[in-house]
Amino acid sequence: MKQYETVIGLEVHVELATKTKIFCSCSTAFGGSPNTHTCPVCTGMPGSLPVLNKQVVEYAMAVGLATNCTITQNCKFDRKNYFYPDNPQNYQISQLYFPICRDGGIEIDVNGTKKTVRIHEIHMEEDAGKLMHDEWEDCSLVDFNRSGVPLIEIVSEPDMRSSDEVITYLEKLRLIIQYLGASDCKLQEGSMRADVNLSVNEVGASEFGTRTEMKNLNSFKAIARAIQGERARQIELIEDGKTVTQETRRWDDNKEYSYAMRSKEDAQDYRYFPEPDLVPIVISDEWMAKVKAEQPELRDEKRFRYKTEYEIPEYDADIITSSKKMADIFEATVAMCKQPKKVSNWLMVETMRLIKEKEIEPEDISFSPENLAKLIQLVEAGTINGGVAKEVFEQIFTNNIDPEKYVKEKGLNQVNDEGELRATIEQIIAENPQSVEDYNNGKEKAIGFLVGQTMKAMKGKANPGMVNQLLKELL
After folding, report:
1. How confident is the model at residue 256, as a pLDDT?
2. Same domain for 31 and 154?
3. Record's NCBIfam families (predicted)?
4. Into how many domains does the chain fold?
5. How far is CA 413 from CA 174, 387, 410, 421, in A?
């Protein structure tokens, strides 16, 4: 039976986190009413001229430096000519001949096997608008809010061989960009999009097979499914004696099937030529050094530091640093309460539980480190017990309440009064003679029931340590 190898390269488009567009001052905010973030420049009106946003160049440089690329210190823009309804100028300003970053790479680790995925180039360009089909009116409408939003396109070499390698590469790339603050990389909002170039050949073949490009991939799960589906489709064609056509295909994640959109274009089809309305970009050594000096600590360094400086387990460090938001909350909370393991526990257990329950991303966490630090201090001071703390944390997670005020308003302070606890426990013992008999007959678990009944009677506010101590004394 023939063995096949899958060869995969990616083109990753990332919307940069600038407040304004790449060539005009229109807002890049997501979710505005259609065609409200527009002007003559980003809608391609005759006579309008682009002005380059400096922050776009700095973000592109930062990503290039973090992915071990060489920065092209004399680079320029080119016109990529094509007609499409969401492309108002009938061309896109991009970079072909002198992209800002080249020849980089990042190391990935898949099941203990490390390899470097090379990056061919990173170039800057403007995004197109968005087509929306109205099924009631049977027509397509165009929203130009996204037109002119700054993008970088990160083009890898065809170095990946499985969906696992692709997802690991994308996850690492996304974290690098998020840590840099260059983009939020939210796939569901389109601020990170991946096109998959995939071919199949027999193991040991001297040449790669014919590649296809798959678009419309807006989640890591969809990317993995698309890779498996396209691999199977190409193998079936080869084994049936047919040829794979070089084309762009659209993946339908609901049907788990891709269908042809158009034949795959080459660079000459776009009639590239130097952009006449923009001067070349000259990146001085000083400018590049400034961007490099401002680079934050990235995930790999942060993970190592957490294990050594804060002495938290490797597993905790891996989970916390897998989200920039979680890492920021961790560090800020530890700075206030000086309890790294306890902060880690709240993030690893209750925070992760609520993230899963509410089906949100870690980056969407909205509670403040100050309120988490206050909660930990309330527990440490014995003001509230662990059960109440979990109840309070749910309110912090959902509504970012001040735990000190909430505990005071709701009367949740821990009961440490021995007289009050003793009276309640004596009543519980009197009401549960069978459990008392079980305990006296050597059934240690019986005390757990009595503790539970006491906590219930005290509305969860009793000091658990004192309850256990007094129960054993009275029994």
Report:
1. 82
2. yes
3. gatB (TIGR00133), PRK05477.1-2 (NF004012), PRK05477.1-4 (NF004014)
4. 3
5. 43, 12, 9, 14
